[in-house]
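Weekly modeling sync, notes
Attendees: S.R. (lead), two postdocs, one rotation student

Agenda item 3: backlog of single-chain predictions. S.R. asked that every request posted to the team notebook include the full sequence so nobody has to chase files. The rotation student volunteered to paste the first one in as an example of the format we agreed on. Action items at the bottom.

Example entry:
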Amino acid sequence: MTATDLVMRPLGGARVLVAAGAPDDSASLTAVLRLNGFDAREAHSADAVISSVAEIRPSVLVTDLDLTDGDGCEFVSRVRRLPKAPAVVVVTGHTAGSIRRAALAAGAAAFLLKPADPIELALVVERLSGGRD
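Predicted structure, as returned to the notebook:
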């Protein structure tokens, strides 16, 4: 499957929340998800994510571990403890195996390295969202 295949055959309209420490990262991840039919929205801090999860009820949260106002793995754990918590996909530049293990232990359902492959990201989000909200 290619990126063109995904754009030509959108995956689904599930709500996805995207959070990254760098606005450019957040914008590019959001754009990839929107191109593939997801209702992707952005939050730019850990606190904004927490309030957005309660407000918009996303199926999936795509997040970097380097948010400006939170410890990455503790943040993942905090999100997963919320009522009706979304599945969490970590997209990060941290390559250490210990970081990957810590993120998964904190509750992340998937761990992708930057730059995340757009096809892989879309397919992981589709799988975790169950298709549509």
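Discussion: group reviewed the output briefly. The longest helix spans residues 23-35.
Action items: rotation student to repeat for the remaining queue; S.R. to check formatting next week.
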